[in-house]
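Quick one, tokens below. Sequence please?
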């Protein structure tokens, strides 16, 4: 491999420019090509990154650009065919979340990457953020005690999508965070929601996640809220954490609060809950852009032959959860078990 990893980015719309900016900032990575069907968009970006050759088609970029890796930031329906083409061409491949539009498509990508010996990584960006990493460390230290439940809210006004619902758009962030700090993927889910603006595309949803070890979490997602909310509450038997990603500095607040049940009592009249109200502590967190850390990890995995934290198998597991959530959504909110074969039923409703 050359001294620097040669990378191309496909998709220069909403999120692609952020990938371009961060990959370009890495010392041992060279942004060699950008690809988008919009010629005007390509010309605009070429003004900022003149060293990156512009292409309007992926096949042309793969054939003409000397690349080690490709990052894909296109609509979900294009993830699978584009990633397959990149892996077939022998390129290490990064795919924005969710990995693909079905678990079958994810499995094909995982298998192909293994056969080709290429790095396959999925953009679950928040797992690289310093606040989430700190939360995991706090939980693993035992400071919170046993986790009783987690409640996540990710709300805003827009951006309305045309090919996926709010579950596929926003919930992957919270599912990936909760699974990361719980050290396991959900085993079952139920979900309810409603399509208010566009027919058959839910713009608000409430999800419950159940974990093999007894863990319990709720995830609320909405494109139809007046405020931008990015909040997660983690309730332990000893302490509690509120993680607010909208906060500029104090993103994590640790509350020394809990409710205690008496170990024994003789009569019901003697039974009393004990409420402990202690101090709140906001630890200092190193301010680093999660996407830059994620891009750094992708390049390091390519250079060192390592498996990414958010590899193809983790992307597959998350898509299985999304499929189960949408199966529950279509069935009115009943519980759906998540297995290695995916949820029961064959039709992928989210694709309409």
């Amino acid at each position: 491999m050359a001294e620097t990893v040669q990378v191309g980015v496909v998709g220069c719309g909403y999120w692609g420019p952020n990938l371009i900016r961060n990959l370009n900032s890495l010392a041992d990575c060279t942004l060699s090509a950008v690809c988008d069907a919009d010629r005007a968009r390509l010309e605009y970006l070429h003004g900022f990154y003149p060293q990156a050759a512009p292409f309007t088609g992926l096949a042309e970029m793969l054939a003409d650009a000397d690349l080690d890796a490709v990052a894909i930031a296109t609509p979900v329906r294009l993830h699978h065919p584009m990633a397959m083409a990149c892996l077939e061409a022998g390129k290490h491949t990064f795919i924005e979340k969710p990995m693909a539009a079905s678990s079958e498509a994810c499995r094909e990508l995982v298998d192909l990457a293994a056969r080709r010996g290429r790095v396959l990584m999925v953009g679950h960006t928040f797992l690289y953020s310093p606040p989430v990493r700190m939360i995991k460390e706090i939980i693993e230290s035992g400071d919170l005690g046993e986790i009783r439940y987690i409640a996540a809210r990710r709300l805003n006004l827009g951006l309305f999508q045309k090919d996926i619902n709010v579950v596929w758009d926003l919930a992957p962030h919270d599912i990936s965070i909760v699974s990361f700090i719980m050290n396991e993927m959900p085993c079952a889910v139920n979900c309810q929601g409603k399509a208010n603006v566009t027919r058959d595309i839910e713009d608000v949803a409430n999800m419950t996640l159940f974990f093999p070890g007894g863990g319990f979490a709720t995830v609320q997602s909405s494109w139809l809220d007046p405020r931008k909310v990015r909040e997660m509450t983690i309730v332990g038997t000893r302490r509690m954490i509120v993680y607010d990603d909208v906060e500029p500095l104090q993103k994590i607040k640790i509350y020394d609060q809990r409710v205690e049940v008496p170990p024994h009592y003789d009569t019901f009249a003697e039974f009393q809950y004990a409420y402990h109200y202690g101090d709140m502590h906001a630890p200092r967190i190193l301010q680093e852009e999660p996407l830059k850390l994620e891009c750094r990890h992708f390049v390091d995995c390519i250079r060192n032959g390592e498996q990414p934290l958010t590899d193809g198998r983790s992307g597959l597991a998350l898509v299985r959860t999304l499929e189960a959530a949408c199966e529950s959504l279509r069935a009115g909110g009943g519980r759906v078990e998540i297995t290695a074969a995916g949820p029961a039923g064959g039709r992928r409703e989210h694709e309409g």
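The chain has two domains: 5-125+290-310, 127-288+319-337. Residues 312-330 form the longest helix (19 residues).
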